[in-house]
Amino acid sequence: MPNTPADEQRINAIRFLAVDAIQKANSGHPGLPMGCAALAYTLFTRHLRFNPTDPHWFNRDRFVLSAGHGSMLLYALLYLTGYELTLDDLKNFRQFDSKTPGHPEVGRTPGVEATTGPRGQGTAHAVGLAIAEAHLGAVYNKPGQPVVDHYTYCLCGDGDLMEGISQEAISLAGHLKLGKLIFIYDDNHVSLAGPTDLTLTDDPIARFEASGWHTQFIDAGHSNDVATIDQAIHVAKNVTDRPSLIAVRTHIGFGSPRQDSYLAHGEPLGPENVKKSKEELGWPLAPDFYVPDDVLAFYRESVGKGRELQAQWQTLYDAWKAANAADAAQLERMIAGRRPADIPWPQFDESNGALATRDAGGIVMNAIAASLPELVGGSADLDPSTKTYLKDCGDFEPNAYAGRNVHFGVREHAMAAINNGIALHGALLPFGATFFNFLDYCKPALRLAALSEIHNLFVFTHDSFMLGEDGPTHQPIEQLAMLRATPRVNVVRPADSLEVVEAWKLMVNAEHIPWALVLTRQKLPFLGKRDAAVSKGAYVISEAGGGHPDLILIATGSEVSLAIDAQKLLEAQGRRVRVVSMPSWELFDAQPQAYRDAVLPPSITARMSIEAGATLGWSRYVGERGVAFGIDHFGDSAPAAVLAKTFGFTAENIAQLATDSFALSTR
Amino acid sequence: MPNTPADEQRINAIRFLAVDAIQKANSGHPGLPMGCAALAYTLFTRHLRFNPTDPHWFNRDRFVLSAGHGSMLLYALLYLTGYELTLDDLKNFRQFDSKTPGHPEVGRTPGVEATTGPRGQGTAHAVGLAIAEAHLGAVYNKPGQPVVDHYTYCLCGDGDLMEGISQEAISLAGHLKLGKLIFIYDDNHVSLAGPTDLTLTDDPIARFEASGWHTQFIDAGHSNDVATIDQAIHVAKNVTDRPSLIAVRTHIGFGSPRQDSYLAHGEPLGPENVKKSKEELGWPLAPDFYVPDDVLAFYRESVGKGRELQAQWQTLYDAWKAANAADAAQLERMIAGRRPADIPWPQFDESNGALATRDAGGIVMNAIAASLPELVGGSADLDPSTKTYLKDCGDFEPNAYAGRNVHFGVREHAMAAINNGIALHGALLPFGATFFNFLDYCKPALRLAALSEIHNLFVFTHDSFMLGEDGPTHQPIEQLAMLRATPRVNVVRPADSLEVVEAWKLMVNAEHIPWALVLTRQKLPFLGKRDAAVSKGAYVISEAGGGHPDLILIATGSEVSLAIDAQKLLEAQGRRVRVVSMPSWELFDAQPQAYRDAVLPPSITARMSIEAGATLGWSRYVGERGVAFGIDHFGDSAPAAVLAKTFGFTAENIAQLATDSFALSTR
Fold first, then answer.
1. How far apart are CA B318 and CA B296, in angstroms?
2. CA–CA separation, B158 and B138 (whole Å)
3. Are B657 and B610 in contact (CB under 8 A)?
């Protein structure tokens, strides 16, 4: 059925807001907004449930523009439908500190659900949103009272689907039978560098079907046939026993002289082509950013419709709340990001004996799990090793969405990005665990967590060559430096069980930032009852005999006990040695200068850092006269004790090095 | 057809060498060697063309054990078939500096083709090996003289196939129709943490078919039916118009009490279960590491067969060489890793004007391409942006394997790992290009390149927030620190076209190490004809007026010209300022102390580093009194000039900061 002239006008309004904004910025990607305008129009005006005046309405449908380079498509729709986004904001596209950055950034623009742009991430973020919805619905909904009940849509391009993370996300979503997750594939046959068939000849339908998805392919009459798109979305919504894919044959740069060419992908059309495009589609050449009054009026009906939708839901919610006061209080607490006051933090003392920090972590998580229903997550097929399984919380599996243990499979990258989505949904606090070395696999998603200020908890175990026999392919070296160099990530490497529990307190009570908890495979001694000042990043864990140290050993994690052993040897030689435990650089750097100087007095220049990782960056703490002791080469496959000796991580070697350093510094 | 008793004995010999070695090490993964022994036996004794006495025979079939945790399967076969690996080596499994590390490491064990263990990597390495074979065959083979003509086999597990990188590799291999690539999937229904259907319910056959692969599923009579496996491999080899998958239903831990349980996956069986397994399969309980003489004799026939295969090939090769002397000389040069003496390196001077280093890089690559036929590679769908397209070298596409431009698609991770495989094949020098920020996507493969000492060239463009409007999702911050913290990677960030050409000289002529070339999107001025000592990592690019500097500005890449501008301002104020260009930390750190002290005299403590990236690590060069100027927060979406000003990357701000620093340092 051909579109009505009114539909065409409304679709063209999206196209030319995007084209004009990109042309004004002289930067951007016009191809996607032009090619996807009709399908986005259909989705936003006929299906998506949202309230532009309350972008945080908890039960709204979620829409993720995984193909984030098409940001102007989204910004145009957010403006048209009445979000707090003005025409001036569109005119500020890609300008400093604007609400309309080059790629969508969550938290910066009302209505943007996820930061996207790095290809593929949005697909996994969407899966996370859908997992959160399924879980919360399973836990809180009552018969006839579906208080959490919405769809998650994801618009993705060929770039998203070529990235491996999308396969991880698709495979897991299919396994989990997430029935309210709908992907729309912008099947435009063109990528940045040329036609997609230069490098991509997969059958996308078959690929999704192999993972158990419902699929539809529509060639919607030159991509403009609203009725066809509308019908496909209807079908997808009604398939609730598995996720749905709608592949839509679109035409990149639709209506422009560059239509169906990769030239439409990544650069402005240029004034001449803008003019030709407007002529081709019957759009007034002037003014720029033109939106006919009736078009705007039509879109702005979304405001009233949205308010009504939310009001209906509120009525439902109020009735549910009246009948389920405790549930409601809990859900509202979780949505607000408040933690209960009475979390039963476990106590550790000498009686626990030597304990790997991964084991201590598992004890903490299981101790607090019952009081923190928002804590959901899992590992990348390593529960038995990472110790992160929540024993009494059930598995999140098809038809058992109330379970809190997600079996992510060997899919570190999707795990991290899915957890971003879970956190972005609201109410939940996700965690994901794997071996520290495999941080490498999920780094792009961790970066997005930091950029998006997402409270996502990463648990990394097997944190050094001390994991032993698995060898250098599994032994992290540079990973601590990678994390520390990344803005806005808090890294904590605890020295014993007491620091683990302190770290978890910080992680649970923090907001708006990802945390990386870095834990050992091997057992570590309990370092004594004390005020383990993890929140301050570093503290004196063992002072020099008689005070007045003239040497400071600074260590993290498993090397703190080693430093204390070395301290004993040195003190026996008459040295005065302070040991500083420094579980977190970021937290220490945030302390007042006075505190930092108290822990690391500037007058004491004989300093040595000890950490089983790359030494990069340590010179800022040990100074010019200090020694950064670590491991700047790959490990080896051997029992941990053999490696410790070979690589010099023994108290004797540390003491010897420190003695040398101390001697040097007094010359 | 049931196996003969002789077959069974030979298969069990593999199983129990693995079981005994793992038990002796008290560490390892017995499940895979026990479950895959029959299929590996069939492959190695009936199909794989190799010569144990010359593991480097150029035309051998390649075998990649992507499921690297099953290393003992491979070690057992290498020992049995007569590689330079002794029974004592097997007894040293997982011991320090042994030939039998926990996961296979190329270069350490004869017969190991790739370092594997981090899941999924082997699949892409195998695709790289097959690409290299296809390319070399297309270039050098003559009718009747297929001097490069071998299969590449990859044994992978569910962990490999869950990782996104495998999808990228599968998708590209299918697109490229790599007919001599055969994957064998160890379909054992069990992963480390439990049954795979806890998290994986894909139809693997359908998934591979969606990417155009030929597929077979065999349930080989309790996984032991050699005839069935043999037949499937025959079929796969005969399908030469596309890659082949053979999914084999196997039984993890076959024959042990833990058969078909995840408990067999990742830990030794324990003495009691070893005993029971031997009883179950009718194997003598003693001695350990028992191999019946006739079994060993049978396997050792591989030595004679291998010599004969190689001799036959040598005859073919000699005839080909006689008729194609120039080709042979070229191929032999490339295999030896020697570069031609007469590479036409381009000259740059003022007449080139301002040039982005990415553009300079493209000019260099195209200038040298004709004389360096070993240079093959491409970008992750970013040729127009990374400028890495080799204009006269054709595309590597189905039925056009002589082309040298590989269109990797938006598959950064597979690109990097495939290039590892291309390099490991021998003869070729691969490069892969993407935006610097997307280093994150390929980090695991870059790490393997470093660990495996692979000469793999990474070209990263758009190297700072100065890429502008694409915004913080695309603007690298921590990536330089990530690379510098990683052992055994050389990083070069050139300041202008002259440094670019010097960097390429180093990269082309080096061996056994990956390089990361970090280039700008924006134009940079030409910094003058000079001896740009890139090979020394850092050099004085602009000395203080009159010599005797009392302040040193140290900069890399695009910030060098900025530093020189700041120097001018400071000199105008009467300061004496040296500017050091430091394109590579690794190369500088490798210089003698005297050279380093000449560039950065210890007496000059007023130092400031300037780099548009995280400052982590710079304190080692600027010292306690110095200033590390960089950007330790995320960027923004805006024109580059706006960002430069906002973030303080202007000559005026640098000069001001330097003045302040200098004043401080003299107090």
1. 33
2. 33
3. no
Q: What are phi and psi of B154, to 5 degrees?
A: -135, 125
Whether the CB-CB separation of A167 and B164 falls below 8 Å is answered with yes
- The three-class DSSP label of residue A552 is strand
**C-alpha to C-alpha distance for A197 and B400, rounded to whole angstroms:** 15
A589 close contact with B: CB closer than 8 A: no
pTM greater than 0.90:
yes
Interface check A591 vs B, CB under 8 A: no
Nearest to B462 by CA among B575, B540, B379: B379
Nearest-CB residue to A210 (from B68, B206, B646): B206
Tell me if chain B has a CB within 8 Å of the CB of A267: no
For the CA atoms of B615, B619, B623, B624, what is the dihedral angle to 10 degrees? 90
B160 token code pair: 């490999």
> Residues A381, A408: contact at Cβ < 8 Å?
yes
Give the whole-angstrom CA distance, residue B471 versus residue A93: 11
> Could you give the count of Cα atoms lying within 13 Å of A30 in the half-sphere of its Cβ?
33
A636 vs B: CB within 8 A: yes
Smallest Cα distance from A454 to chain B, Å? 14
**B288 in contact with chain A, both atoms CB, cutoff 8 A:** no
Catalytic annotation, pick one of A412, A502, A559, A586: A412
Residue B228: φ, ψ to 5°: -65, -45
Task: Write out A22-36 in H/E/C secondary structure.
Answer: HHHHCCCCCHHHHHH
Q: Rounded distance, CA B111 to CA B74, Å?
A: 9
Tell me which residues of chain B, numbers 462 to 521, contact chain A at a CB-CB cutoff of 8 Å: 468-474, 477-478, 481-482, 484-488
CA distance B222 to B488: 45
Residue B381 forms contact with A (CB below 8 Å): yes
Q: What are the structure tokens assigned to A298, written together?
A: 């039509």
Q: What is the ipTM of this complex?
A: 0.97
For chains A and B, count residue pairs whose Cβ atoms are closer than 8 Å: 353
| DSSP-H helix ranges across A369-496 | 383-386, 412-425, 439-451, 479-485
Q: What is the mean pLDDT of each run of 10 residues along chain B (667 residues)?
A: 92 98 97 96 98 98 98 98 98 98 98 98 98 98 98 97 98 98 94 85 95 93 83 98 96 93 89 97 97 98 98 98 98 97 95 96 98 98 95 96 98 98 98 98 98 98 98 98 98 98 97 95 97 96 93 98 97 94 98 98 96 97 93 98 98 95 53
Q: Which residue of A118, A397, A410 is in closest CB contact with B163?
A: A410
The residue assigned the tokens 């007919």 is: B179
Question: Is residue A125 within 8 angstroms of chain B, CB to CB?
Answer: no
Output the CA–CA distances (angstroms, integers) from residue B460 to A109, A158, B614, in the order listed: 30, 22, 17
Nearest residue of chain A to residue B446 (CA atoms): A440
Cβ–Cβ below 8 Å for A117 and B471? yes
Nearest Cα neighbor of A278 from A290, A266, A268, A267 is A290
For residue A372, how many C-alpha atoms fall within 13 Å in the half-sphere facing its CB?
27
CB pair distance less than 8 Å for B381 and A633 = no
Q: What secondary structure letter does DSSP report for B380?
A: S
Chain A nearest C-alpha distance from B72 (Å) = 12
pLDDT in tens, A546-579: 889 999 999 999 999 999 999 999 999 999 999 9
Annotation says A586 is catalytic: no
Instruction: Quickly list DSSP for B311-373.
Output: HHHHHHHHHHHHH-HHHHHHHHHHHHTPPPTT--PPP--GGG-SEEHHHHHHHHHHHHGGG-T
Set of chain B residues whose Cβ sits within 8 Å of the Cβ of A411: 162-164
Token pair 């493969």 is found at: B445
